[in-house]
Amino acid sequence: MCDCPMAGVFASHESHRSWIIFKECKTSNGSQNTVNAGTISTSGSTSHTSPDLNNISVLLESLDSPLRPATPDFNDPRSVEKYEEHKKLAQEYWTVQTELVLLTRKRNELLQAEAEEEQNQRKLKHMQEEKESLRLIRDLLRQQQENGDVPDT
């Protein structure tokens, strides 16, 4: 198990909300990704057993304990205000984590495409060099044939 950050992506529709949790972990064997997804109807029942990340309490519970806001003292308006501010910061944190995961995946896709393009360019260059070598050999053989250096077959 690793302590890698998770990120969620949310989508809404008239009759349901969808969510995805990404958890990307770097291990000694490479990257290991976990993706959980679910759909929540407007009545609140989920199609999967994973939590509803649109619910702020679930989002806060999923944070590492040092990042979770302390329960406010509801008799102190400043405490409640700080708690609400912390909840907003937690939502922003999840948004940034989501963007980070999605951008990292896009970056990896682009790097893979770039590597494939570089490989194709090397292959093309090699084939062009081989083509030029074959042209030179052909021209040399024609010249030898015209000079009578090579017997006709």
Q: What is the ordering of alpha helices and beta strands?
A: EEEHH
Tally the helices.
2
Number of DSSP E strands? 3
Average of per-residue pLDDT values = 74
Radius of gyration: 30 Å
The share of residues in extended strands comes to 15-25%
Largest sheet: 3 strands, antiparallel
The side-by-side strand order for the widest beta sheet comes to 1-2-3
Structural class: alpha+beta
State the domain count: 1
Parts with pLDDT < 50 across at least 5 consecutive residues:
9-19, 31-53
User: What is the percent of helical residues?
Assistant: 40-55%
Would you write up a description of this structure?
- There is one protein chain.
- With 153 residues, the protein is α+β, with helices and mostly antiparallel strands.
- It has one domain (6-147).
- 51% of the residues lie in helices and 20% in strands.
- The chain is built from two helices and three strands.
- It has helices at residues 56-62, 77-147, and strands at 6-12, 16-27, 30-41.
- A three-stranded antiparallel β-sheet has the order 1-2-3.
- It is rod-shaped.
- The N and C termini lie far apart (73 Å).
- Mean pLDDT is 74; it is low at 9-19 and 31-53.
Outline of this structure?
51% of the residues lie in helices and 20% in strands.
